[in-house]
Write a structure and sequence with these properties.
- This is Ionotropic receptor 25a.
- The protein is an alpha/beta fold and 931 residues long.
- The chain is built from 27 helices and 28 strands.
- The strands form 7 sheets. The chain has an 8-stranded mixed beta sheet, sandwiched between helices.
- α2 links the parallel β1 and β2.
- The longest helix has 32 residues.
- The chain starts with a helix and ends in a 38-residue tail after the last strand.
Length: 931
Amino acid sequence: MCWLFLFLLLEHALSQTLQTINIMFINEAKNQLAEKSFDVVLNYLKKNPKLGVKVEAVVRVTISGTDAKAILESICESYNGTVMDGKPPHIVLDSTMDSIPSEAVKTFTDALALPTISSSFGQEGDLRQWKTLDNEKQKYLIQINPPADIIPEIVKSIVQLQNITNAGILYDDSFVMEYKYKSLLINMATRHIIVHVNNAENIVKQLTRFRDLDIVNFFILGGLPTIKIALDTASTKQYFGKKFAWHIITQDKGQLSCSCSNATILYVKPEPEPGMKERLDGLRNSFNLVEEPEITSAFYFDFFLHSILAVKNLLDKDDWPKDFNYTLCDDYRADREIIRKDIDLMKNLKTVNEPYSYAPFLLERNGNSFPEFVMKLEKVTIVNSQSESAESMGTWKAGLNSPIILKDATAMNNFSAVTVYRVVTVKQKPFVIEYEEEGKKKYKGYCIDLIDEIKKLVGFDYEIYVAPDNQFGNMDDNGNWNGMIKELVDKRAEIALGSLAVMAERENVIDFTVPYYDLVGITILMKKQTTATSLFKFLTVLENDVWLCILAAYFFTSFLMWVFDRWSPYSYQNNREKYKDDEEKREFNLKECLWFCMTSLTPQGGGEAPKNLSGRLVAATWWLFGFIIIASYTANLAAFLTVSRLDQPIESLDDLAKQYKIQYAPLNGSVAMTYFQRMANIEKRFYEIWKDMSLNDSLSEVERAKLAVWDYPVSDKYTKMWQAMKEAKLPNTLEEALDRVRNSKSSSEGFAFLGDATDIRYQQLVNCEFQMVGDEFSRKPYAIAVQQGSPLKDQFNNAILQLLNKRKLEKLKEKWWSENPERQKCEKQDDQSDGISIHNIGGVFIVIFVGIGLACITLGFEYWWYKYKRPADGGGGPMVVKPTIGGGRNVEKLSVTGLADFGHHATFRSRNTHNSNMRRGNLGQIPTSQW
């Protein structure tokens, strides 16, 4: 009996301290998680009487649909019933999520001034019905954001950390993002799309749409089933790699799984506070708080429990108004605002001592009150559908502007998607040069270096490919484009890179950056004018037959002169007594005749002429012949050496148009072809206009006279040129055009190529056979092209201007033109002002060297002959003949070079010491040639 008495006494004491609370619980039908968490709270309060709360009446209102009037009628019906039953609610617990149901509840509670704590989604200003609450109302009309409303804020933190410029965000029903379409990435330079998905088909469609819009940074917010579908779709469409980045954000606890062959993913999931795990496990085991996601179930449990305990605190402190009057919905008047004072529910909510089960609440103001949970960031690598590693990278504490805390500052440097642009180009040296390295096609050149420099400034990567037809882009008569322009228009490429000329028609469909290259026009490529050179070109002045005739005349005249001198009685050798007093005595033997005829052809002269008249007539005839031959040879030599250098048939486009020996044409489909074709069409149109004017019968005689002019008013220059080009057949490739130029017979006959000056200048640079002729015309700048309206235009403009200021573009020109490794060192072409080159006159020096060489050989022969082959006379050496008294001659030893001729007859006397008494005698007549 004693124990029973004590038990009853304790029960009575507890009944005295329990606060009886009436609750109106308003929820949406789709929010089953809140419903079950509320039931757990009621059970928790019932099993924990020490909390001092007794929930006497609970009115549940479940909302479905979006009819605001029907929702308000349902709420008012339940509320009016509680008031009429004498059990009006102390607090309204609102777990509606968003949109019309949430706004309807807030309209109801604001109008009737009922203390309310709501877990609706939306930031400050998103709750339209509670947007203009005064200070008193903010004390009892309270909103606390659920985790699913705060978790998306990590997207902003990741974008800021990684400086992401584009983002595709998919979310499922576990998140509510309607309020974040405009606010999530506001005031950030990030192109983004936020889309709700609810099935696999929708996920596939939206990911494909993102890729078509060139979005490469994907954010998936949802449950693990939704995430698996998204990752499987990405694997099927090959959306993994360095140019894609995947960010998976969920409320679930499980591990990632997908049918991915090779994927690296940033996985973000919540993690309870370490000190609260024990309590959370107790609630799960003892009170069946097992609904997933765990973080949301725990939030609703804490939300309901702390809200009820806050009301209990108010009642305990007697802060609840004694005159709290409940107004029925039917009695409400809009012109009579219900004012509640001194109900500071927010203050009491902050002072609740009950521990939280997942994360503490930050309570400040509506739109900025939420649980401060922690999200863990992991780098997950999946290979062959298996998760191989999960590297912890950092954490993020829930907040509206909370930064990511990384374990390593460089942990995410290489994780975000590298911005990869598709670049279309055209192979053209030296701008874009294709080569192979390790079996892969690679590119180098001026434009490749340029895009690499821009890449450093703008920050992106690129994939380059050659346009299918390797054309820059021209428009046909139907307005359709080809080449690089078509690739941009069809969105297959973001950048067109190459020596692309800026043209008005192109600017109608694409955008150009500022020019990166000087104005470049069209010019002419021809085979270089070459002059045949020969060291013995001076011998080619006369034909071989002439040279043979001159040689024959030389020998015949020399022979004839020798015969006349030998047989003429008046010659020196036949009449020595007659000419004995002459100072010049010359016997014209055959050797002397040959020497005389040869030297007569030179300015030195032939020397003493023959004494006989017949010989002199032959000499005079030879002199006349020689004078004419030398004069003719000299005149023709000068003309022959200079006439080839004076031949310059083509110097301009007009010169090319006026001649018919050289065919000419541009590349088929090139800018040059378009230029000439359109110029011809313009001339044709102008002619039609002029013809219509001049043949107009309504003109007066005076007006018609003004149109009658001698000079044709409309030129047909380009019409004739275009016709000539079509007859010459336009080459389809640059190689074909170069072959036709190379195979030309000469610079005045063959084929001339009309093309971009850069192409022609480069061919002249690497090939000594070609030359650029004439000035450039139809000049246009080169620029990079991007899709129309692309933000790359402004970024590239800034980068190109920076490169221009740093003189980087000039250095690139130097590298690929002046310092090009393929540059050839060509021989300087002879200029008209230059003298005769050594290549044409060098044979004369060879003649000198040959003559000197022959002279040296002859000298050696002479020395050898006179020293070793002449018969010995006892003296052992050459003799010198001295005149003696009595007509004799004394012979003395002399050197080899000391021979002298003293006459036709000589008497020799030996001065040999062994035979001093050698008899004297007449040796007879010894010809001089035999001495």
